[in-house]
Amino acid sequence: MRAEIIAVGTELLLGHTLNTHASFLSRECSELGIGVYYHITVGDNRDRLKEVIRTARERSDLVILTGGLGPTEDDLTKETVAEVLGIELVEHPPTRRWIEDLFRQRGMPVPSGNYKQALVFPQGTVFPNDRGTAPGLAVTHEGVTYVMLPGPPHELIPMFEKQVKPFLISLLPEKEVIHSQVLRFFGIGESYLEERIKDLIDRQNNPTIAPYAKRGEVTIRLTAKASNVQEAEERIAPVRQAILERVGAYCYSERDETLEQVTVNQLRDRGQTLALAESCTGGLVAQMITSVPGASEVFKGGVVCYTNEAKEWLLQVPRNIIDVHGAISMETACTLAEQAAQRMDADWGLSVTGVAGPSPAEGKPVGLVYVGLAERGRPVRAYRFTFRGSREDIRVRAAKQMLFLLQERIKKGELTT
Amino acid sequence: MRAEIIAVGTELLLGHTLNTHASFLSRECSELGIGVYYHITVGDNRDRLKEVIRTARERSDLVILTGGLGPTEDDLTKETVAEVLGIELVEHPPTRRWIEDLFRQRGMPVPSGNYKQALVFPQGTVFPNDRGTAPGLAVTHEGVTYVMLPGPPHELIPMFEKQVKPFLISLLPEKEVIHSQVLRFFGIGESYLEERIKDLIDRQNNPTIAPYAKRGEVTIRLTAKASNVQEAEERIAPVRQAILERVGAYCYSERDETLEQVTVNQLRDRGQTLALAESCTGGLVAQMITSVPGASEVFKGGVVCYTNEAKEWLLQVPRNIIDVHGAISMETACTLAEQAAQRMDADWGLSVTGVAGPSPAEGKPVGLVYVGLAERGRPVRAYRFTFRGSREDIRVRAAKQMLFLLQERIKKGELTT
Lengths: 417, 417
What we know:
3 domains; elongated; 24% strand; Molybdenum Cofactor Biosythetic Enzyme, Chain A; 6-stranded mixed β-sheet; Alpha-Beta Plaits; 43% helix; 5-stranded mixed β-sheet; homodimer; CinA-like_C (chains A, B); Putative competence-damage inducible protein (chains A, B); Maf protein; CinA_C (chains A, B); CinA_KH (chains A, B); alpha/beta
């Protein structure tokens, strides 16, 4: 089944509202095995809306329209669908009563515009709206099903979940599911990763293999169609296995988790705790860790030691270490990590000091970053990196690198890193 | 000029990524006076992409495509545009050198896929990408201009602002400038703000008045068309004045700066310094402050005191304050702010402690947040807030509220807050 989603609303074209419905409905559809091939956004304009409906019916079996079911003259989604299909709308008495009751409860007369919300397709389906006045509608005409849903998310989402989803399932010819698994990688570029698995990508069919890069990370989405989830997972398994055999060293999650989620989970599983000392990342790592619900079980705290005073006074970094080696050095990174762990009684101390830019510091170039990692009862280690890009890029890459190092060390132990 | 925006990427159709580019580019275009009539999303599929490009060229003067410029075989935006237009791409030596240099700096050979990123339109425009390997491209063919931009937001946004916007302005038929000023507000809801200036919005013409809400903040963009910038500013001035007379109390920037930029600038102007103690925001405020280049002049450092131990050991918060009043209390907020300022010898100490959720803590409800503010030589103050929304919403709102409080206090002095 081929679907497309048409969002109707000039506010979307002005960029004042994000089209979150398209992604919500796409996720829901792909879980049902309905492939979404296009998203379209068009303004509250009858001619252009007609044109996109005509294009949609030529190429899709299912057309989901959102918005434009309100009471104003601007709202013309169902009227335009009816016009294109040559169907005359009829009044739906239960909806008319519902609207009248709503306004009676508010002690107001029904505004004339609201009566048109009771008009429906004579041979169609009505999805009552218990959060508003506009019911959802569906009609099938010449093999194409049109579903029209109200724009407000707090009306659309529950209506979809309770009424539209079962309706769509009833349309499906075969009971097919589309199931995805996401592998997440760090420390390998997208093009390198792709080169390493090029033959698998070239042969891809079911599952499909979709790599996607974002700021130092690469994700691979494996998507299979099958008659049920278990069968889809069985299709995915050998391909995932083949990918992991080649580039598994860079894979930090096989379940689409972020680096911070993986780190928090690993620490929680081991009953261990973490303390941070951040210089150039300025609190970013702490912010990432604490964005994970339940971080308080494993995160003792952190210091954003942006000045030498903060390093000395909060973490008792000896003045002479900074004087001799500089604040941006292996030695300072080690001491920061050790002191953070000791002073907060944590199992792990993770530190960073470097030059995020835009200007060099201590005569050291922009992008130079040292990471310190202290583990209770083990010698502290420091790592040196050079990152490129803007100040923001360098901070984000350094933060991710720190979490990647930590989760690798937790996973593999000291010897292998 | 009629524009449409085509986003290319299967991940968008699966609903895993929100199409934020369509709204960003729509806002930018409408500010330039370019009407956006359609948003289209299509997968990484040559035939469907061809079809949407063919439809677009029939109805639009400007077609902006995002995504699909990467090094992989899935990336086929420019190849498909070239195919539809019947143009052969040629190698652009400066881009090839840029890509080779990038990989040389990383000490890696250039993966074969990256060479195709140096292919451009022979009669077109190249927008160099200083954040990645894929340059942006533009080409005009039979009266229609096609602009192709890389998908990653941290590449697309600066490229648009620095290079594509001037390029689009050069396409506009009349030599008219479109000039904007942005006012930024905090602490007032969008609908309330709009109500206060409704008559101005209803009468808007030149300048236009566009309010836009995002997470606790509202911006108003005033955009005037005129024959030069000075004339545009003269048109904007009385409208801006009228808005500020009504809602100026909530305005923290008349120059489109963020709260963190305003705060850093104010502190720098006064030669003052700041120290932070963050509990529920977990480093977010430090991260915001340090994202501003030059923050090191004013930011002494911060403590992410996520546990009571961190509060005691790093900031010497007396145990009995936490025992008697709780970690989430006015008293703890005051002590954290004072101790942060004292221990880091800063002019200002700003602290936060609260419940970000998802679960209540210390028997206190999700969303309850205390902010402490200590100024050298003045009595410390604490403020109590209740925020609604997700964990992330509460953290972001709390962080913005802290910066808003601080900048107001710096601006107005103690008595008026």
